[in-house]
Amino acid sequence: MKASPSDQRSLLDLVRVDIELQRAEDARQHPPQAARVKELIATRGEQGRTLVEKTNARDDLKVQLGRVESDISVARTRQERDRDLLGKTAVAREARALEGEIDSLAVRIDGLETQQLELMELLQAADEAVAAQQRLLEQTTAEGQELSVGGKAAVEKAAAEVQQLTRDRAAVVSRIPSDLVALYERLAARGPAVGHFQHGTCGGCHMALAPTDIAQLRKAADDDVMHCPECGCIIVRTAESGLT
Question: pTM for the complete prediction?
Fold first, then answer.
């Protein structure tokens, strides 16, 4: 294929734009915050499940404490009733029975009050655990929201860059012959498409060419489209190529 040296040099502009376009497209599709946001979503789900477990455990303690307090209330009510009856009875046998029940209720109330204190301590610790887990969940949520806002801004910025670079690419393509652009597109679909030849090295694969290959580049006409024997990309020769 033949192409003027200036058209071949324009391919270097095209590949530079394409590299920037790919970078911007990657940034648009994969903002730097995305990976962390994904981690936080998983973390938040786990923290939410833990919060439910801790809340359920606290609520169970509340139920247990309510039952104990209800039992204490019932025992005290019955104890007061027995004392009232004891003060009214004149039958020795009934008095002994009431005194025995009053003593038994006192022991029961004492045990229930001990259990009540233990449950109150456990409930306080459970309340603190729920509050701490809630704060942890809120921190994770806040971080996720902040990163999401930053990610959205990054995507919008990258999208704007993609639009501008797409226009830049169209401008570069417009000044290159269509057959040369088509060759470039075919090569770009499989790997490096263009390489600036400098210091005996292909700019596409960065391999040093053999002396015989360099000699062929020296002998080729300026408008010959030459390819790298290593990677097959178009070798663009310029004044910096050191072939003259």
Answer: 0.69
